[in-house]
Amino acid sequence: MKEVRTRFAPSPTGYMHIGNLRTALYAYLYAKHFDGKFVLRIEDTDQKRFVKGATEVIYDTLKTTKLIHDEGPDKDGGYGPYVQSERKEIYKKYALELVEKGYAYYCFCGQNEEEHGEDAEQEVEQTYGYNRHCRNLSKEEVEANLKAGKSYVIRQKIPIDETVTFHDEVYGDITVETNTLDDQILLKSDGMPTYNFANVIDDHLMNITHIIRGKEYISSTPKYQLLYNAFGWESPKTMHVSTIMGKNADGTVSKLSKRHGSVSFAKLLEEGYLPEAVLNYIALLGWSPKMEQEIFSLEELAKLFTEDGLVKTNAIFDYKKLDWFNNHYISNLSHEEFVEHSKKYIETLPQDLKDKWDFASTLAQGRIDKFSQIAELFDFVENYEDFDLMELENKKNKLDKQQSLEILKEILPQLENIEDWTVENINKVAQDYATQKEYKIGKVMWPLRVAVTGKVVTPGGGGEMLYLVGKEKSVERINKTIERLLKEI
């Protein structure tokens, strides 16, 4: 069997979109499933969209996600260069070959791609279409224009009144009438290729056997197939994957964008999502392992991933589902790993809490869906406001405000006498008091915890919360609650 070679070919335009990362993941998984090669190629033909530092973002993302490429700009596998701007002369050679064979032609119409960039130029043509003014220039007219130094582009000469068919591993055979296709630009006036030309040349020369890309490229694939036919090359197998959609405020869906939330991998990491959780989740956006299991390691995904699991229907990016995945991965970190991951998220916490973080972290792990929730989880340590005194009542513990007041007044002196403010000593005072009063411990802890935190739901029990808040603040808050109750009752 021929060695499977897939490629990830991002443009260095600033950040790694979730859709691009999923493409990289699928290409990586497919190659690894068949013990093949995963190739990284930097597609920087549109220099006007190039963002400084963006190439480093690509490398960092692949390293962080452990999608390690076998070949690329930094790992020559014999098919380089792997950066398209370094392959300029290669593209020109093949463009001229197409002109010579009659499958392409010089165009001197002065298209505005120099001013607006490749994307804008292509958008203009898709909207209005090129009138093919230069398609039938005589050889003499072309030579005269070249001799005169006129600026030109090279366009693909799309056949008229024909059909072109290509096979996709997901969508099957697709046939398109050539009259619906424009004579796209292959080589721009600056000598750089368009993406639509460069990707065909590179995929062939780099011996790429399988291409995985978004289904928005289906409409361009007939032009690619015509180029393969013109050169007499075998085209790689294609798998067009579903689009990742986001849910709008009104319930409709549209292509995932910033208005739906964080859509870049870097932003998700900033919010405190783990790389493993993100990969696990996006692997299932457009592909199904056909089993109930949802949690997979990268190695497990590689064993399972084939084109048979790819689906045609668009996937909806659900942040709540991502939270579920992330919570699972956070919960399964070792204590040391959790503390390490949490370091940058506790910088804004009060120093007293940071000093107690080794303990507080044990309360946070399993209670957060992402690390950015840490500050909110412990905000009561620093921020304390008057709470609704009705929260001191609790049916389960048969507590009303009067009983809460009595408990707080009676236990406060005992808490003040604690010299070593530890969870164990706080709990002992509470337990001794509960035993003396013949109360269940919950009846004592409820008013203590609410009085000190101002919250009904906390990341731990009463003793733990009083310890984190500290003795001085705990006593102060209990006193304040007693004063408020005395005024109200």
Write up what this structure looks like:
The protein is built from 21 helices and twelve strands. The protein has 489 residues and is mainly alpha-helical. The strands form five sheets. The chain has a three-stranded antiparallel sheet with strand order 3-4-7. A three-stranded mixed sheet has the order 11-10-12, with no helix packed on it. Strands 1-2 form a two-stranded parallel sheet. Helix 19 packs parallel to helix 20.
Summarize this entry quickly:
The protein has 489 residues and is mainly α. The protein is built from 21 helices and twelve strands.
What key phrases describe this protein's structure?
489 residues; mainly alpha; three-stranded antiparallel β-sheet; three-stranded mixed β-sheet; 45% helix; 10% strand; elongated
